[in-house]
Structures are given as structure tokens and as C-alpha cells.
Write a structure and sequence with these properties.
- It is built from six helices and ten strands.
- It starts with a helix and ends with a helix.
- It is about 30% helix and about 30% strand.
- The strands form two sheets. The chain has a five-stranded antiparallel sheet with strand order 1-7-10-9-8. The chain has a five-stranded antiparallel sheet with strand order 3-4-5-2-6, with helices on one face.
- β8 and β9 form a beta hairpin.
- The chain folds into two domains: about 20-40 and about 125-200, Gyrase A, domain 2, CATH 3.30.1360; about 45-125, Alpha-Beta Plaits (2-Layer Sandwich), CATH 3.30.70.1520.
- The chain is globular.
- The protein is of the alpha+beta class.
- It has helices at about 1-5, 25-30, 55-65, 100-110, 135-140, 185-204; strands at about 35-40, 45-50, 75-80, 80-90, 90-95, 120, 125-130, 160-165, 165-175, 175-180.
Length: about 200
């Protein structure tokens, strides 16, 4: 799902304006050199899920959405157009395409079958910024304390971390990273990414 989502940067629907829409042209210009790619993937469905990973409900939910809930800390699991991110021992973020939130909530709640499960649609809380290309790690290293070397944080890894003093969920993919950032911080993070990219864009 990481690659398919990153490659399908959608045009905002009529009547909606994404949190980083104002940066589209600047992202495109920064990506022109080929060594770096900046973009926004707006309006992804994002469902926060809390459930005991050892409960029957957790297994049923994985079956219902077609993706088993990952139990290894800091990992992701994908299937079809969905991806599930491990956020904590009993917490996940289910990420899907625009418009899928209501169906996901219904499927998860039905699979829970009355067991103690928290299901919250948080789609409006965050947008997704893409930082791809061979210079992606260099750019993020300016403001992220994580070891982003592929051996430590390669495809299939995720983490809740800080980037330039902004809380983000960082997801590693085959061709870079996705940043799930709160909508109220999207402009700040977008501006920071562009500033941190200047030397690599100039040299690209």
C-alpha cells in the first residue's frame, strides 16, 4: 500500500482544500531535479483503533479489513489499498483511500461484535506529506532524531516521532517516507521541508 498510495497523489475534490494545498507548486518545483520528491496526499481515511491484540476481536478485525494487525512494535502491514500502522501495544492506525472511512468503521465495529474496542475516525486530523527520492533521508535528518538508515528504519517501519518540533507519524516506504502530520501543523512542516531541501534541490 505504501507505494500505491505514494504514487497516487490525488487532486482535491471540489469544495475541499487540503491543509498543504498552497504548497503544491513549490513542492513540484523542489521535485524537478529528480533527487527529491515532495508532495501531499490529501484526504486519506485514517481510523484510530484500540483493542487487546490477544483478543478474538483483534483477529476478527484483521480478517474483516483484509490486513492482520501488526504486533511487532514500529511495523506496518498492508493489503490491497489499506495499511495498518502499529502505534502502541494496543493501538493502530488504519489508513485507506479517500472516502473509505465510514466503511472501515462499520467493518471494524461489526467485527468487534460487542467486545471492548475503540474505533475513532481521525481522517480530518491529519494530512500526509511525501518525502521521496535519494535525498529524502538527508532532508529529514535535519530535524528528526531517529536513525533513518535503511537497516534501522527501512520499508515496513513506522514511528511516532518529532520532526522540527512537530509531532508526526513517520512511515518508511520503498522510495522514501510519508509524514502523517496534524492539519494545524501542515503548513509549518511543509515550509520546513522546503527550507531543509534547498541545498539538495540546488545540487540536484
Amino acid at each position: 500500500m505504501a507505494d500505491s498510495v505514494a504514487d497516487s497523489v490525488a487532486e482535491p475534490a471540489v469544495g475541499r482544500r487540503s491543509p498543504a494545498a498552497a504548497f503544491a507548486a513549490r513542492f513540484e518545483a523542489a521535485s524537478a531535479g529528480g533527487s527529491l520528491r515532495l508532495a501531499e496526499i490529501p484526504f486519506l481515511a485514517q481510523i484510530n483503533l484500540r483493542v487487546d491484540p490477544k483478543s478474538p476481536a483483534a483477529e476478527r478485525i484483521g480478517t474483516a479489513i483484509g490486513v492482520p494487525l501488526p504486533v511487532e512494535p514500529g511495523t506496518t502491514a498492508g493489503g490491497g489499498d489499506l495499511e495498518v500502522l502499529w502505534l502502541g501495544p494496543d493501538e493502530w492506525l488504519v489508513v485507506g483511500p479517500d472516502g473509505a472511512a465510514r466503511d472501515l468503521v462499520e467493518r471494524i465495529e461489526e467485527a468487534a461484535a460487542g467486545e471492548h474496542v475503540s474505533v475513532v475516525d481521525v481522517s480530518a486530523q491529519r494530512t500526509t506529506l511525501v518525502v521521496g527520492g535519494e535525498r529524502a533521508r538527508d532532508v529529514l535528518a535535519h530535524g528528526c532524531a531517529l536513525d533513518l538508515h535503511p537497516r534501522a528504519f527501512g520499508p515496513g517501519r513506522c514511528a511516532q516521532t518529532m520532526l522540527a518540533r512537530a509531532a508526526v507519524v513517520l512511515v518508511a516506504g520503498e522510495d522514501g517516507f510519508r509524514l502523517l502530520v496534524r492539519s494545524s501543523f501542515a503548513a509549518y512542516v511543509a515550509e520546513w521541508l522546503l527550507d531543509a531541501s534547498v541545498e539538495y534541490v540546488a545540487g540536484g
